[in-house]
Please model this.
Amino acid sequence: EIVLTQSPATLSLSPGDRVTLSCRASQSVSTYLAWYQQKPGQAPRLLIYDASNRATGIPARFSGSGSGTDFTLTISSLEPEDFAVYYCQQRSDWPPITFGQGTRLEIK
Amino acid sequence: QLQLQESGPGLVKPSETLSLTCTVSGGSISSTSYYWGWIRQPPGKGLQWIGSFYYSGSTYYNPSLKSRVTISVDTSKNQFSLKLRSVTAADTAVYYCARRKIGPPYYFDFWGQGTLLTVSS
Model:
C-alpha cells in the first residue's frame, strides 16, 4: 500500500498569503496524484489531477507540481474561502486508492 | 446534472451489518466511462477508500476491509449498495459515494453529500 504523508498538519495564515502544501509518497506514484479541498460539512472537491492539471472550474490561484514521491499544492494568494482541509490522493497503484491525512489551513 | 445521494439507517448496533445505498441521477452507472465507489471519513479524521466497481462487474476493495465488504449494483434502479459486516465503533463515519472517471480527470470528480452512520448499542 502506498502511504501518503502530508505536511504540515496545520497552517495558520492570512488572506493574501501564498501557501505551499506538501504531500510525500512512500514510493513513486509518477504524476498520478490529485489534490482535494474539503470544507466543514461538505464532500471533498477535486482541485488538481495528475499532479498539475486544474479540474474544471478551479481558479488559477491553485497550482500543483511534482512527480515521483514529492508533490506540492500552491495557492498563490489566499482568499477567505480557501481556508479548509486539503487532501492528496494517489491512483498509481491500487487497490487500495489511498489519501493523505490532510493539511488544515486556518485563519491566523 | 449528475447527483449522487446516499441513504441508510443512521444507526447500527455493534456486530450487525451496515447497509447503505447510493442513488445516481443525471447519469448511468452502466456507463463505460466511470468507476463508482464508496469512501468514508470518521468524525474529525481523514478519508478512507472502501471500494469501487466498474459496469462490467469488476469490483475492487480496500484490502483492510475486503473480508467484511460487499458492493452490489442494481442497474434497473441506477443504484449501488455497500454492505459492511460485523461493524464496530471504528466503523462510525460519514460514508460518501462518488464517481471516478476512466479518463481525465481520473479521480473522484462527483461526490454525494455523505451520510453519517453511527455504530452504537
